[in-house]
Amino acid sequence: MAYDEILYDVADGVATITFNRPDRLNASTFKMERELREAVVAAGSDDGVRVIVLTGAGRGFCAGFDTSSLSNVANESNGVLNGEQLSTHLEDVFGAPHPDYLGRYSYFPSIPKPIIAAINGPAVGLGMIMAMFCDIRLASDTAKIGAPFTRLGLIAEHGISWLLPRLVGLSNALDLLFTAQPINAEEARRIGLVSHVYEAADFQTKVAEYAGHLANNISPRALRITKAQVYSDQYRTLDEATLIADEEMDKSLSTEDFREGINHFLEKRQARFTGR
Fold this sequence. Notes:
The protein is of the alpha/beta class. It has two domains: 6-215, Alpha-Beta Complex (2-enoyl-CoA Hydratase, Chain A, domain 1); 219-267. It has eleven helices and nine strands.
């Protein structure tokens, strides 16, 4: 797969998608957005991929939208899928995801594989939003994360007002959105915005270990169902979620992955999950 503004690589069950505009701190463009969507959907459809990692080239994750490209908006934006087109596209590929997870940046939860944001440097504005919609966030100790919208006279964009309070709580979310001040990686971990912080020198190794664990030691079927449960249950009652979990548990007991999960544990060997 050839792209202009991202890199795409698959190795050992992990698809790594890298924003590749390091001279602009990987600031996003409409072309990058299209390429990202194509790559994420391709990884989600590839049986050889079990985990997706999203990161940035050079010293940044993504420094927001590249305002210098706004002069090309009239031409470039024609290739950005609108909500109806994206909904149809993802439903054709993955079935019928919840409509809230079919938006321009909110489609990551519809991808049936874990998506890890490996935040190697500044993740600001749109970069923060894309990281927030990933399932897991891992950060380098040099990372800075921020939502500068109000400082620019803008509002909480692209659903972050819905998502951020669910990740860090109402007060912390309002603090980040009101002040428009970036926070460092340790503060992001303290409030629950990222799961783990690693030293910059070891960051790529630690991300690879984390992704490799999911790809090699965890049932891909269990990951797919669990991800769907967690996101769909945001719109269910506890009783509904419990009933669906009971149904899915019954289905799991008859799968190859369940049998392999028991056998590799008893035989004290590496798991060989098939995803079936």
